[in-house]
Write a structure and sequence with these properties.
Blueprint lengths: L1 H10 L1 H13 L4 H4 L1 H12 L2 H9 L1 H13 L8 H23 L10
Helix pairs in contact: 2-4, 5-7, 6-7
């Protein structure tokens, strides 16, 4: 999740900032008051290729971690191995996506 949050912060900074400010300014009713801003963060992050790749390739690892923390709410430390698996997967997926984006476009063959 750390990798995903870094990417969201990088590519959706203004949306994330507005949402965070709304949550901070509305401690009693932020879930309803800030719902539209939360949707904007989600919409922004869902268009990023690296984030899409992490969601697609690391879904299983995230499910394992999520299941663990839901079933061990008072002992979340037992879920650290599952969290590390998700972090590793996310980092690898984001790195591979970034490499693809950084690759120069191959030159086109000239038409004969």
């Amino acid at each position: 999740m750390d990798v995903v949050m870094e990417l969201v912060a990088k590519f959706c900074h203004s949306e994330l900032e507005a949402y965070g400010s709304c949550v901070q300014d509305n401690p009693q009713n932020w879930p309803t008051k800030c719902a539209e801003l939360k949707r904007k963060v989600s919409d922004c992050s869902s268009t990023n290729p690296s984030i899409q790749r992490i969601k697609r390739e690391c879904h299983k690892q995230f499910q394992v971690y999520d299941y663990c923390i839901r079933n061990n709410p008072s002992q979340v430390e037992v879920c650290l191995p599952a969290l590390q698996e998700f972090f590793t997967c996310g980092h690898n997926a984001a790195s591979e996506q970034q490499l693809k984006e950084d690759m120069p476009t191959p030159p086109q063959k000239a038409a004969a």
